[in-house]
Amino acid sequence: MIEPHAPAPPGSRPPRSAPGGPGGPCGPVRLPVRPGTGRFLVLAGVFVCAACGLVYELELVALASYLMGDSVTQASVVLSVMVFAMGIGSLAAKRLRRLAAAGFGAVEATLALVGGCSAMALYAVFAWTGDWGGMWASGPRCLLVAFSLATGLLIGAEVPLLMELIQRIRRQDAGGAVADLSAADYVGALVGGLAFPFLLLPFLGQLTGALLTGAVNAVVGGALVLGLFRRDLTRRARRLLLAGNVLVLAVLASAAVLVDDFERAARNAVYGTDVRVALRTGVQEVVLTGGTDGRPLGLFLDGRLRVSGRDELRYHEALVHPAMTGPHARVLILGGGDGLAAREVLRHPAVDRVDVVELDEEVVRLARTDPALSALNQHAFGDPRVHVSTQDAFGWLRGAPPMTYDVVVSDLPDPGITASTKLYSQEFYGLARRALAPGGRLVVHAGPVASSPRVYWTVEATVRAAGLRTAPYGTGGRHAGFAVGPDRTADRSRAPRDWGFVLAARTEPRPRLDPAAPRPHVLTEASLAAGERGARSTRIAGLPASTLVHPRY
Residue limits of the PABS domain (predicted)? Predict the structure, then answer.
């Protein structure tokens, strides 16, 4: 509780404001508007700046997850560094309280430049320096931490300076001022958090969205200081802040004009000059390369090579044909939006129905309409026996009728990708087991055996924990097919050179080929037996199963 000052004797001079008293260290500010209007404008500025700050955080998390994978780790690193830096920034801002208006203007201009350009800078380093794997000392990872640290320092410096400014407009008890600022800050964060996934990312993309956010940040911060607190600044400070904000806006505007050319150049640096299709769906980035003039087709999803026309046949034949030994009239394919697993299933004449569950409808559309991809899958989605459902595989299985399918093919992204973890959980395989008819078989793509044996055998242990018996096997590939992280076409040395699978059933399964079915093009009984021996030689015993609440990958 603040005690009121005793009335001053007649003719005496009023006391100077003590630090923290009315007007703060520099006394009440002279405003061009009424104090009530001034407070409202400051709180509106807090609202906008908080929204921009959260967009910067989400942008760094999204870009790091896209470029490096393992979204839990990237989100933890970015957010923990930023929160730490916010605390340091708040402490450092105490030294700027006597120059609160000028300090806040400088902070917002710098934050707009750093936050607005962060996505473009990170993507440029990724595109032109290579893979983000390896030690944290690598340049791109250090740059991510540096941007997180700088953004957090600047965001943390905002509130103390705004607290000083709002107190100098009209004296208010500290608790009430903090409550007002916090309310505006949290509501702004809500708006920014919703705007990023529902507006900025789908309509503008990561690069343009960050640049626009920086421009809004610069305009609002500059207008608040130069418009509302201009009488609190020296003429030199006003000129410097105006020039700084104009320069920041010019940089952001120039980057926005060049963003399309930059994105094309960066995409060519990542994927090569063969890019034919590049689009951002509501699920992921989809890129098609080659497929014409004798060049092999490549399908990239979120930077990971999912299909290589050079050796996709090795993968898809090994995935599908061992599971088709036995009844296979009704087949369920989880994933497989490229249509290549369906192509192999349809080679068996006894198939009556194939249900494909693919989350991204744009991948299915490309598989139907792109000349190269549809030719590679032999127009599988045009077959009347094939029925496509575009939804999450986990949710679809929860509503699937029990004991329906003779074969379930899990053609899903690598288990090492965080977004796929639930699709490699004990609960997921329990749902798949329920969908199997008596005598049915489940086959799972379980990632590379040689380079990631722990992940592979964790998948096998998880399938067994769901009540199924398993038979592990693998196959080799000349080229990378499913990289755990972003896979640059210029350097595939880090990508896996083999694929691992787990065949499962209620009774003991055995990987073999159906002698009555059409023979695969490259898969043979001998290579299948060799793949089984090779997988078993890497066995890691005693691994726990992965569950929804305790993922092990």
Answer: 256-506
